[in-house]
Amino acid sequence: MNRKLAAVAAIATVLVASACSSSGSSGDAKQATLSKDGKGKKITVWLMDDAQKGWPDVVEAAKKQFKDQTGADVDIQWQTWTNYTTKLDTALLSGNAPDALELGNTQAAKYIEAGSFVDLTGVKGQFDNSDKYLDSLAASGQTPDGSKTYAIPYYAGARVLIYRKDLFAAAGVTNPPTTLAELKDALTKVKAANASTPGFSALYLPGQNWYTAASFGAGSFGVKGIVAKSDGDKWTGTLTDPKFVEGVKVWNDLQKQFSTGGTTTDEATQDALMAKGNIAAIVGNGWELGSVADPKTGDPSLKDKLASIALPGTAAGTPTPAFLGGSDLAVPAKAANAGLGATFLQIFTNTQQQTALAKFAIPNAKNLVAAYKAAAPANKATGDAAEGQTWFIPNSPLWSGADETTLKTAFGAIAAGGDPAAELKKAEDAVLKDLNG
């Protein structure tokens, strides 16, 4: 099966579901309403068990407030990420969809294109802080041109620089670097201080970790339209933009000088490798601090030796743009109680609930990130990253795992000595074939 057919096959099920519904595609999707007529009713909401484990009190508070305002009860059905897309496809196809649901922000585009969600554009202004949503998280729930909204930001995660304070201090680096120049100087000292350690990485940058490589590209190019940008019904590539290539060269220079990550691996095993003691720094999600020191999978003795900062950028106080992952919330077009589902999402994402959630995860709006950073010292790095410029994958239903593989291959080839412009041109051509057909 060729790359384009593989991408189309990935959304076939939801397209069938869409064809069976009255909503058609995103262009003529059902318009959302906010209903408080819930006396004697019960709505069903699918949420990931991250909330059940992390912030169940937030969920309970939203349920109570919803009951008080509408008279309706809420049945929270806890989900896991494993095979979730398959379960959701089946529910949308069969007509047994919940009244509201959570999904990953990288999953949203295909359902939006298929018309599987109600159009929230008309009611979004009634959601707290909707004019201050985190840019990249908000974009994932919109059409590519940003004119319509079908999913509301829920919470986010950001990649940061996680480093060994003890190794940096032993090398004479006592203050966290604030710029790329300071980072390079610090890494030079750490590398020299550990020259006798076999396979030591002052900064572990495996060649196929394309998210980190592209973040450096974004540091020079900007965050809008990373990889490709929408121009009406057509996508145009940005990987070969000279400014993007310039940023990738910065990444390539760092990985050549300071990493033993190789050219055929990505970031999947970096936490375990860091726990073994021969890596001084990685670029990873904030929760990876805990993973490195996990008693089961890492080294608990490192717990107090780890710290994190937003990945420094070219100027002090301006981090390298971070990829912003996270979750969105939506109302299925076939929901039996779509108006009540939308009202639950309005309450679940209001300032009260999001401020409470900020103790555990990055909230959905810029004006609430300060509460997240104040909740724990470890939150400052990811909060700083989220407040800075962030980026997201091309917001297309035809973006697929094959495109990520293409980018991994391209950056791996660059790390192996390939010409950045030439390798990125190959990747750009392949990705655009998928996005444009």
How does this model look, in words?
The chain is of the alpha/beta class and 437 residues long. Helices cover 42% and strands 14% of the residues. The chain is built from 19 helices and 10 strands. Strands 1, 2, 3, 4, 7, 8, 9 and 10 form an 8-stranded mixed beta sheet that branches. It has a two-stranded antiparallel sheet with strand order 5-6. A hairpin with a 2-residue loop joins strand 5 (228-231) and strand 6 (234-237). Helix 10 packs across helix 11 (242-258). The protein is globular, with a radius of gyration of 22 Å. The model is unreliable at 1-24 (pLDDT under 50). InterPro entries: SBP.
Question: Helix and strand layout, with pairings?
Answer:
Elements: H1 3-10, H2 12-19, E1 42-48, H3 49-54, H4 56-70, E2 73-79, H5 84-94, E3 100-104, H6 108-113, H7 135-139, E4 152-164, H8 165-170, H9 180-193, H10 210-221, E5 228-231, E6 234-237, H11 242-258, H12 270-275, E7 281-285, H13 288-292, E8 306-309, E9 322-330, H14 338-348, H15 351-357, H16 369-375, H17 379-387, E10 390-391, H18 401-415, H19 420-436
Parallel strand pairs: 1-2, 1-3, 9-10
Antiparallel strand pairs: 3-9, 4-7, 4-8, 4-9, 5-6
Helix pairs in contact: 2-5, 4-14, 4-15, 10-11, 16-17, 18-19
H-E order = HHEHHEHEHHEHHHEEHHEHEEHHHHEHH
Text of the CATH class of the largest domain: Alpha Beta
Total beta-strand segments: 10
Ends distance = 14 Å
Q: Helix share of residues? A: 40-55%
